[in-house]
Amino acid sequence: MTKEAQPKSRRPRRMAREPGKPSTPETNGTSAATADLGEAQSAPAPAPKTPSKIDTVLALLRRTEGATLEEMTEATGWQKHTVRASLTGLKKKGHAIVRGKRGEVTCYNVTAGA
Q1: Could you tell me if residue 1 is inside a domain?
Q2: pLDDT tens digits for 65-114?
Q3: Range of 76's domain?
Q4: Are 71 and 62 spatial neighbours (Cβ–Cβ below 8 Å)?
Q5: CA-to-CA distance for 67 and 76, rounded, in angstroms?
Q6: Residue 97 burial by CB count (10 A; 0-12/13-18/19+): exposed, middle or buried?
Q7: What is the greatest pairwise CA distance in the chain?
Q8: Is residue 93 in a domain?
Q9: 3-class SS of residue 85
Q10: Could you give the count of Cα atoms lying within 13 Å of 2 in the half-sphere of its Cβ?
Q11: What is the CATH number of the domain that holds 74?
């Protein structure tokens, strides 16, 4: 191939800096204003963590009256089978979940030992 037939690069080549020479804003591709800004600004404080849905379920189960399946589905937006599966997962993690009745409705509680 001749030199004229070779495709041209779309980006210009960067100039290599000389060895032993410190990097300056002109040689590393940043402007002087940007280089100073990075040192002066600190990282913003992280936002407080919002409780997860499983934390919401646990909070409902820890109430003295416990929680019904309907209450847990409304609080999380999950379907009933997903709430039941999360209760199974909590049992596997060592939480002692007890099923009882509140009137005619099944109610779930976490016992004090867990």
Answers
A1: no
A2: 999 999 999 999 999 999 999 999 999 999 999 999 999 999 999 986 64
A3: 53-110
A4: no
A5: 12
A6: middle
A7: 90
A8: yes
A9: helix
A10: 2
A11: 1.10.10.10
